[in-house]
């Protein structure tokens, strides 16, 4: 009997210990949001949580212009300076595919209620072996997802850039861009931002002077072109 009573007294203590262990690291607890994310996108969870932590500490203003996508957005560190006078928000996470921005749309797009979204993605998708058709399909999924969350928000797709280090992918880049551009032309709530053409030289090759040493990411000259292409669409 004494043994049984002792065991019963241990149960609450054991439960408390298990609760404390599980809650010691918040990342150990799957939320409904993380459960709904495809396995292929789950690796970006730490990046998304950092955004959420930052938002909690300093809630961003609503009705801003949101830039989302892969490393070319992450590295656009001059956004606020380039578009002075416009509320802008950068939610790029480097190395991501287009489908990753869709997967986290409810957490890094919808809460901000932006008036306009600029998406740059698809570059890594093609480098990872996806086809131009798949990138086009993923773009359609992104638009459908955002519209379900924010029916009145307009979306601008920044064309996949021509990178010297990925020149072998140029035919796929052109194909994906053209499919997306054609679909956008039929929808007045969408924009196509053609940064592709001005980043080519007279021989239709990528301009190396626009890139950093890795010939993949852009230097300030490259971003100056992006700024000039985006600026007219902000109004």
Question: Would you write up a description of this structure?
Answer:
The protein is an alpha/beta fold and 235 residues long. It is built from 11 helices and 5 strands. Strands 2-1-3-4-5 form a 5-stranded parallel beta sheet. Strand 4 (154-158), helix 10 and strand 5 form a beta-alpha-beta unit.
Topology, element by element:
Elements lengths: L1 H23 L7 H4 L9 H13 L7 E5 L1 H4 L4 H4 L5 E5 L5 H6 L1 H4 L7 E5 L2 H5 L4 H18 L4 E5 L11 H15 L5 E4 L26 H11 L5
Parallel strand pairs: 1-2, 1-3, 3-4, 4-5
Helix pairs in contact: 9-10
Concise description?
By secondary structure, the protein is α/β, with parallel strands linked by helices. The protein has helices at 2-24, 32-35, 45-57, 71-74, 79-82, 98-103, 105-108, 123-127, 132-149, 170-184, 220-230; strands at residues 65-69, 88-92, 116-120, 154-158, 190-193. The chain has 11 helices and 5 strands.
List keywords for this structure.
Rossmann fold, alpha/beta, 46% helix, disordered N terminus
Number of helices: 11
Question: What percentage of residues falls in helices of 4 or more residues?
Answer: 40-55%
Strand line-up of the largest beta sheet: 2-1-3-4-5
Structural class: alpha/beta
Distance between the termini: 79 Å
State the CATH topology. Answer: Rossmann fold
The mean pLDDT is: 88
